[in-house]
């Protein structure tokens, strides 16, 4: 299954300036987000399922990919397109087996070793970062920079979604370094105008590619 | 799939007096626990999988049932016998569908209405409580007492595992009120001698039944 990773917007409601989850999703989609990830570490599964069902409808209507972070069971329950796992979540190989072949598996990686392992375990795409310093994710570790991204690009062939401190000013160099798309949290959902921020970032990604 | 619910020990490591998870499990099984539930709300999925795999081996060797709380994906990943969900976890009907027919689905209930709904949604057994006041679960709500348990017993035919403030002094009246077994946290894993506490409680349950 292929997906366009140009602009991958991660929704974590408490980074959205007090706006409701579904409003953030609607605005991100209105601005052209090609993928939405629901990443809520502190919500009970029942709430995740309720939100996930709504986001499934919104993303389907917009032609966008919908990915659930960590909770593979919730991803299946809401018929998301796939699940994204970090290095502390389910082991990738286990996730691949539970998901079956028809769903997308994304894995967060920061090194060539992790990237190779994730692909061997069945990842369909990789989250790669942090590229730059970021405050959206406390446990993001030291930035790997464009050099780190290039090294992973040289090592694997699956799509790479770069993450960490990316905005419309630096998106071009990230794409030039080999990313297939950019993932953002605050740069879009923390912006005063979410749709406008998404639109600007998507334009920067597409300009960089052509 | 049937399981003996006589003594259902819930493992939440931080209620275990500083002892390691697997030591608590080993001691509970040594004392005769017939079912073990892993309930860790704050551990990453990767750690749950690692613990779950070990508990799967220990419970299999002891002939005990192994249930994972909330994380259906983890339950499947470690080949647990089933999953237990509360009213804030995955909806029971969704859990039933994702689990398939070969796994056990348990649902926490406190009223006849919830109990009937859970059975209609596919629950194989019900957790019923809190019977008495308890400090192990902050969100347990007002105790339903033996009267609440009897009402649920009269309403459904699936096995009932009573929970909440149960110990070897009151276990007999809980069984007499219609419970098929008792679930405990602190009464076993908080005891100075976990195996002895399990043994004493199991004996009380079995005496009450015969």
UniProtKB/TrEMBL annotation, chains A, B:
GO molecular function terms listed in the Swiss-Prot or TrEMBL record: magnesium ion binding; thiamine-phosphate diphosphorylase activity
InterPro entries attached to this UniProt entry: Aldolase_TIM (IPR013785), ThiamineP_synth_sf (IPR036206), ThiamineP_synth_TenI (IPR022998), TMP_synthase (IPR034291)
Protein's pathway: Cofactor biosynthesis; thiamine diphosphate biosynthesis; thiamine phosphate from 4-amino-2-methyl-5-diphosphomethylpyrimidine and 4-methyl-5-(2-phosphoethyl)-thiazole: step 1/1
Positions of 4-amino-2-methyl-5-(diphosphooxymethyl)pyrimidine binding: 37-41, 69, 108, 137
Cofactor(s) of this protein: Mg(2+)
Keywords: Magnesium, Metal-binding, Thiamine biosynthesis, Transferase
Cofactor, how bound (note): Binds 1 Mg(2+) ion per subunit.
EC number: 2.5.1.3
Functional summary from the UniProt entry: Condenses 4-methyl-5-(beta-hydroxyethyl)thiazole monophosphate (THZ-P) and 2-methyl-4-amino-5-hydroxymethyl pyrimidine pyrophosphate (HMP-PP) to form thiamine monophosphate (TMP).
Family designation: Belongs to the thiamine-phosphate synthase family.
Designated name of the protein: Thiamine-phosphate synthase
């Amino acid at each position: 299954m292929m997906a366009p990773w140009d602009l991958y917007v991660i929704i974590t409601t408490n980074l959205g300036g007090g706006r409701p989850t579904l409003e953030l999703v609607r605005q991100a989609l209105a601005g052209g987000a090609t993928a939405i990830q629901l990443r809520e570490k502190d919500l009970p599964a029942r709430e995740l399922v309720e939100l996930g069902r709504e986001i499934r409808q919104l993303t389907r209507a917009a032609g966008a990919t919908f990915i659930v972070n960590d909770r593979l069971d919730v991803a299946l329950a809401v018929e998301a397109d796939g699940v994204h796992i970090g290095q502390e979540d389910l082991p990738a190989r286990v996730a691949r087996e539970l998901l079956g072949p028809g769903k997308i598996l994304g894995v967060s990686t920061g090194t060539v070793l992790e990237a190779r392992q994730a692909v061997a375990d069945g990842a369909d795409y990789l989250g790669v970062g942090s590229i730059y310093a970021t405050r959206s994710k406390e446990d993001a570790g030291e930035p790997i920079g464009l050099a780190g991204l290039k090294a992973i690009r040289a090592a694997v062939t699956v799509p790479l979604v770069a993450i960490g401190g990316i905005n419309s000013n630096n998106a071009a160099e990230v794409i030039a370094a080999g990313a297939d798309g950019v993932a953002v949290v605050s740069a879009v959902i923390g912006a005063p105008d979410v749709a406008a921020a998404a639109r600007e970032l998507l334009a920067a990604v597409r300009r960089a590619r052509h």
